[in-house]
UniProtKB/TrEMBL annotation:
PANTHER family: NOL1_NOP2_SUN FAMILY PROTEIN _ ANTITERMINATION NUSB DOMAIN-CONTAINING PROTEIN, NOP2 YEAST -RELATED NOL1/NOP2/FMU SUN DOMAIN-CONTAINING. The active site is at C397. It is found in: Cytoplasm. It comes from Desulfosarcina alkanivorans. The keyword Cell cycle does not apply. This is 16S rRNA (cytosine(967)-C(5))-methyltransferase. Residues 183-461 form the SAM-dependent MTase RsmB/NOP-type domain. GO terms for molecular function: RNA binding; rRNA methyltransferase activity. Belongs to the class I-like SAM-binding methyltransferase superfamily. RsmB/NOP family. It comes from the Bacteria. Keywords: Cytoplasm, Methyltransferase, RNA-binding, rRNA processing, S-adenosyl-L-methionine, Transferase.
């Protein structure tokens, strides 16, 4: 086994070395990819725009296709994967990703740069191993073969589409092989950059005009008013004048539908119970035309600080913040009763794997049940804060039954004073095409070209 000593004490100008640094960082200290990118940002700040694009493609692409890449490595390696050091394995993944998925990079360049990465880590023998494996993969591509789809449908789909077997098995059980293939393909696509027009500061046509020269294209999202996709922006979004001026927020169309399902009215009191960084808080304020009151709660003070910054940027004047841990019962005496409550609950995140490909490999089957238990607890603790005839929306970026209808059944069983809202009473007609026969909002990447979300709207009847 060879060990690569990554040089992370100085800025990197090689996009491949930067990608290796991030992948190695994820192996050493498992955390969300966003956190790893934030932590290593000072070391990648010197990358040119072109190199930044390659860096991002290598990080996200290698993570997206990791299982498929590992299967190729296993077909050509002279040792088991577990005998290959994590850093050398990441170098092989980066090299193979370029060979298999990036047509614009010559195969020889992919091999040579991978060998140089190994050498830069002071592992000469490892460089020879990397060189031999990649060149063998180029010379004898037929040595790698997918498992037979008929005899081993789960293994075939898992390796072909690069998803964990336990998740493929669940999806095949629900959607069949063809539906699973379509979902996996959508999850493996690079997701769009979706924006939400901030109606407090401009109209959609005004925003489109402001962004016209900031990207190669700006396209409205069908069926979601105020949402648009930004195609290949020409500069980082935080540097755009329209962003600095608070004229838009970055938010997937599915997440925007959740706020539309709650449909708060001007003058109402609203609770955003797991507000995070404020994406839905600020959308709710926008829908309320900055009239009424919103309380944004979260257990992480650092998130509330960033939420307050977002509130100021977007010109929201009706949102306050409060620290609260929904793992513990809330004291009803210290809260008002709210007209509408939103619980965008912590979840497995399996509906947003196209944006967080690292979660494919950090998520486990047991996580789904664990999150479902936590979601039920959060709903129990929020129920007393909903006024009579008030509304509660429960939402997750997951398509898994335990976190969807399972959570709904548990909540209704424990709280007979709540019912599912009649779809005909939902004021915002935009959400109606996304409602199923039971009145639940569902979005799927392979059907709606947006993130996978589930939401249920409850009404308190007594």
């Amino acid at each position: 086994m060879h060990t690569i000593m990554a040089k992370t004490d100085r800025a990197l100008t090689d996009p491949r070395a930067a990608a290796l640094m991030v992948l190695d960082r994820l192996d050493r200290r498992p955390s969300p990819l966003d956190a790893a990118l934030d932590e290593t940002a000072p070391l990648t700040a010197g990358l040119s725009r072109r190199d930044r694009a390659l860096f991002n493609q290598l990080v996200y692409g290698t993570l997206r296709w990791r299982l498929r890449l590992d299967a190729v490595v296993a077909a050509y390696a002279d040792r088991p994967l577990k005998k290959i050091s994590p850093s050398i394995l990441n170098i092989l993944r980066i090299g193979l990703y370029q060979i298999l998925f990036m047509d614009r990079i010559p195969a020889s360049a992919a091999v040579n740069t991978a060998v140089n990465l190994a050498r830069s880590g002071r592992a000469a023998k490892a460089a020879g191993f990397v060189n031999a494996l990649l060149r063998n993969a180029l010379r004898s591509p037929g040595r790698f073969a997918l498992p037979d789809a008929g005899a081993a449908p789960v293994d075939h789909a898992a390796i072909a589409k690069s998803f964990p077997r336990w998740l493929i098995r669940r999806w095949i059980d629900r959607m069949g092989p063809a539906g699973t293939d379509r979902l996996c393909d959508a999850m493996n696509d690079i997701p769009p950059i979706t924006l939400r027009c901030n109606a407090l500061k401009n109209s959609l046509p005004e925003l489109v005009e402001a962004l016209a020269d900031q990207a190669e294209g700006v396209a409205a999202v069908d069926d979601v008013p105020g949402a648009l996709n930004l195609v290949r922006p020409r500069c980082p979004i935080p540097e755009m004048a329209a962003f600095v001026d608070g004229r838009f927020a970055v938010q997937d169309a599915a997440a925007q539908l959740v706020s539309l399902l709650l449909a708060p009215r001007p003058g109402e009191t609203v609770l955003d119970a797991c507000a995070g960084l404020g994406g839905k808080t600020t959308h709710l304020a926008q829908l309320m035309t900055n009239r009424g009151a919103i309380l944004a709660m979260d257990h992480a003070d650092s998130k509330l600080v960033r939420l307050e910054e977002e509130v100021r940027r977007l010109g929201v004047s009706i949102a306050g913040t409060r620290h609260a841990d929904l793992n513990r019962p809330l004291d009803p005496r210290s809260f008002p009763r709210f007209d509408r409550v939103l619980l965008d609950a912590p979840c497995s995140g399996l509906g947003v794997l196209r944006r967080n490909p690292d979660a494919k490999w950090s998520s486990q089957k047991k996580d789904v049940a664990r999150f479902a238990t936590r979601q039920a607890r959060f709903l129990d603790h929020l129920a007393p804060l909903v006024r009579k005839r008030g509304l509660l929306v429960y939402a997750v970026c997951s398509m898994e039954p335990e976190e969807n209808t399972g959570a709904v059944r548990t909540f209704l069983k424990n709280h007979p004073n709540f019912v599912i809202s009649d779809p005909q009473t939902i004021e915002e007609k935009t959400v109606h095409p996304f409602l199923d026969q039971d009145g639940f909002l569902r979005t799927f990447p392979h059907v709606h070209h947006m993130d996978g979300f589930f939401a249920a709207r409850f009404r308190r009847i007594y």
